[in-house]
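User: Okay, second chain of the day. Same drill as before: sequence in, structure tokens out.
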Amino acid sequence: MVKKIGYQGEAGANSHIACNIYDNDASPIALKTFDEVFISLEKKEIDLAMIPIENTIAGRVSDIHRLMPTSNVNIIGETFLKINHCLMSLKESSLKDIKIVRSHEMALSQCRNSIVNLGLEPVVSADTAGSAREVSDLKDISIAAIASPLAAEIYDLKILKEDMEDAGHNTTRFLILCKDKIIPDNNDGQFITTLVFKVKNVPSALYKALGGFATNGVNMLKLESYQVDGSFQSTQFYTDLEGHIDSEEIKSAIDELKYYSEEIKILGVYPSSR
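Assistant: Same drill. Structure tokens below.
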């Protein structure tokens, strides 16, 4: 049976490409919003979800940090995608015809210097692949989109310029999610344990909570904070730990973390792709 992988966006989005790279035999399912992706996964309407978590230029994807702790899903893997932003338009267009470029605001910001150098007017669209579809529908040779090579193929557009991004290291990290809790065996491979926690509202709570990771020699690959419950006094932390949850080091560190935390939720244990 062919697996269904849900992603946010339209056909040709970078998340669509990430799905193909992760499992070329699976069937990518386009959904409008991240909320729809999480709901579909919880209802088992899809088997997996491909979710962007952070980008080397734009930073974290804020919606995901809101959805992950409250959803009944689990991280089972990660993958990385080098972003290739292409300027594309109708088959009969040439670069000198283009006056307006449409794309997602994040893509426009990542290509700002290229857009300025070409003298184009940027127009914000809902997403990159959607902007390619819009250009195809508008039938105007003066309008282009910034999107992926896959989007150009799907919407029958001509790529006028590749590598529009200002920084060559533009890479997005994706998480692969599933409904069921799957923890791989603790073998000799490299693993990441991801969790969220909320420390008690007492002096030095965070300092003491993090002390367990230092004393047990656990490397924190990522630590981010964000407000919850509509309060500036209620802060939740998202962290990626290097290692398996069944290792003695992480077990001991989490035991110490429990003493200084109100809540701890393990989001997943999965092989590292770094």
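The chain has three domains: 4-82+170-178, 86-161, 191-271.

User: Thanks, on to the next one.
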